[in-house]
Amino acid sequence: MSLFKLTLKELQEKFTRGEISATEIARAFLLRLNQVESKIKAYVTLRDKDALLVQAKSIDQSLQGWRKTQPLMAMPLAIKDNICTKGLRTTCSSRILEDFEPPYDATVMARLNLHQPLILGKTNLDEFAMGSSTEHSAFGPSRNPWNPKFIPGGSSGGSAAAVAADECVAALGSDTGGSIRQPAACCGVVGFKPTYGRVSRYGLVAFASSLDQIGPITKTVTDAAILLNFIAGHDPLDSTSSRKETPDFTKSLKKKDVKRLVIGIPREYFADGLDPEVSETVQDAIQTLKELGGSIQEVSLPFTQQAIATYYLIATAEASSNLARFDGVRYGMRAKETKSLAEMYRLSRSQGFGPEVKRRIMLGTYALSAGYYDAYYAKAQAVRTLIQRDFASVFETVDLLVSPVMPTPAFLLGARLEDPLQMYLSDVYTIPSSLAGIPAISVPCGFSTMGLPIGLQIMGRPFDEPTVLRAAHAYEQATTWHTRRPVIRS
Ligand code: GLN
Predict the structure, then answer these.
(1) Is 321 a catalytic residue?
(2) Beta carbons of 443 and 472 less than 8 angstroms apart
């Protein structure tokens, strides 16, 4: 079997048993990239080939004789391009950071690098993670490996496409309102947004700081748990990172059932706007969870309807403030031949940012401005609390919530580009859990008649990743969706 088809766990095992070398892994993936990357365009930046092979060789040499105990060693990973990688260009898919090489590693990178993975490159995203399709990338969209005419989802579309197209064994993405789960659903892979605070945000280029979380995008739930083990845990460099103990997430995968778990089905997530095929597929998945021993209960999250509006006030307000740092002075691009400081700021920002980012900065600045603050930003914060209470109250009676990830399967490239509201609606089912800060996973649960993947969302109580993983794994093991791989035609 080709090495690039293996899951992280399988590849790890082969490497640990000494059946394959780091150099063989590097070569296999370089070949795969060579074959499919021009069709998928998952990456913004690929690691230098020679540097990668030198690293692989040095791993092999260092191992002479003894077999490794470090489970990430030589594993080929892809990293979303809004996560700082020391010395490796980090663009956020924006012109303004086109040549930016971070002087430091994000905490997640520092943690991964301790175990010597092979970082293959940085993956494409909607500029500054603002979008649901990667079409807002300044470097052009990535393609859905199941059908290149369709979006791979976003904003972590490059990471999800890279995993689905076997262009890496696993990847990191970031999720502010759905950006890990929605592309994972579109590409038929697993995407896990941990509880806000579970993973350090240090070195993740901030979009909306009260929502952003880094998480794994993988081929299986087991792989997501493995990767999460490496990146989770308190970090003094991120004041919002939690001090809660980090469990071994792979332990929650032992039970292959959902017995004694009460699973809530939020009525509001099956209302108008849900594609009938997605609805049917998710209903089938709920039936499977029932057969696995779960007790299914309909619940209500009445403030679901307000989530999109709330999110687009809070996220844009935070973005307008976070993105103020890109002024042409400290980072990235600077407009040339300007006559004054003010003009330099203005031109650097107007040339450096794309249209969606500008739209969000303007919306956010408006929501925060004197006179409108109470009506918009403060109001949105109050509604966010109501949304959080919705979840807190249903979690008194249920252990998990299950829903679709996205109202439709992936849409055609270009279909929603001119209609921001339609684009924003791609995230109706992922945004509420982001506002509440709770953990949520997307697992493959079927295909549309067009042959495009459909995702199942499982949400849990704050810091109860283990139960979310347990249910997702039980479901995955009871079905075969995760074993299907796209055929990428030349
Ligand atoms: N699609 C949503 C947005 O455009 C969410 C993005 C994200 O999670 N980074 O804001």
Answers:
(1) no
(2) yes
